Model the fold of this input.
Amino acid sequence: MTERIVLAYSGGLDTSVAIGWIGEATGAEVIAVAVDVGQGGESLETIRQRALGCGAVEAYVAEASDEFANEYCMPALKANALYQGHYPLVSAISRPVIVKHLVKAAREFGATTVAHGCTGKGNDQVRFEVGIQTLGPDLKCIAPVRDLALTRDKAIAFAEEKGLPIETTKKNPYSIDQNVWGRAVETGYLEDIWNAPTKDIYDYTATPEFPPAPDEVTISFEAGVPVAIDGVRVTPLQAIKDLNRRAGAQGIGRIDVVEDRLVGIKSREIYEAPGAMALITAHKHLEDITIEREQARFKATVGQRWSELVYDGQWFSPLKRSLDAFIEDTQRHVTGDIRMMLHGGQAIVNGRRSETSLYDFDLATYDTGDTFDQSMARGFIELWGMSAKVASGRDLRVAGQ
Ligand code: ARG
Done:
């Protein structure tokens, strides 16, 4: 029986050419699998037909946008996940859900190998292959760009020679990856890290310098998950899409960073994640009133570690799973409403309310009705500073000797 290879298919030039390229190099049949993670753009049926036109024996589209929102974006939101304090893990969280569907397709179509279009320099090859090793340990991995010398010029020449149904002339200097959680743009003149991004790079966000009228939004959360916007019930996917539109119109969520890739390279990336950044801001402010101080401080550290693990391709790892359990436990009382003003590139919280709030007006107030006994503070401070005071006494003594 002819060997079968499942290819993660995007519909772009590289993966379209990869279908025939893999076929020629290995003699295997290629099954193209496109996964819908809310990337928009072309219709998935168009993409499916193109895969068949490029020689795939089967082409299959996995509709995974709700699954992606519920099981990948929501955990990232609960973790307030920002790699290196900036990047909301747009591409990093999409790889594991794509892997899940690739492995499923490999089983269904009797494939022995999974292929992806990544280069040998990035994080995504790691995320795909570590994921595949974990979910399908018997499956082999192959990356035509990295392993079968499929360079860009060869891809264009191959497409023209075979008359593949794909555009080869339109020269897009950027490498773009997008889904409902955000969009990542790199390469081209952005590789000079002093060059400012030009307007044509952006798609999810309008220019924040010329914003429309301010847009006030109320987001309601239950156990850390957005459930309503301005009082209208929404699914996580709808919440993200709605805020992509509203925060995007205000130019919120543009990010320009040089980040540390797992493979040891520093690289410059432009992100736009209007919905994700608005949701993370709102969620964090709700946590501020509903999570106890020590738990909140520890959670910030856990969230950072969670982000690093996910960035580094460890989505299916035991440590990531354990951190999920911790984070989930902290979300029990993260229920309530956040009111936020979206305007001119910023999402600024201006109101919060929660039945499970720890904010105690009577303790906090400086007006009459204050229930806080200020006389307790003196003794507390005395004891709190005691050990440092004892140490500084010793330091003075030693210095004087
Ligand atoms: N640097 C990001 C990450 O490693 C995004 C990778 C994909 N970016 C792209 N422009 N194709 O998660």
About this structure: The longest helix spans residues 90-109.
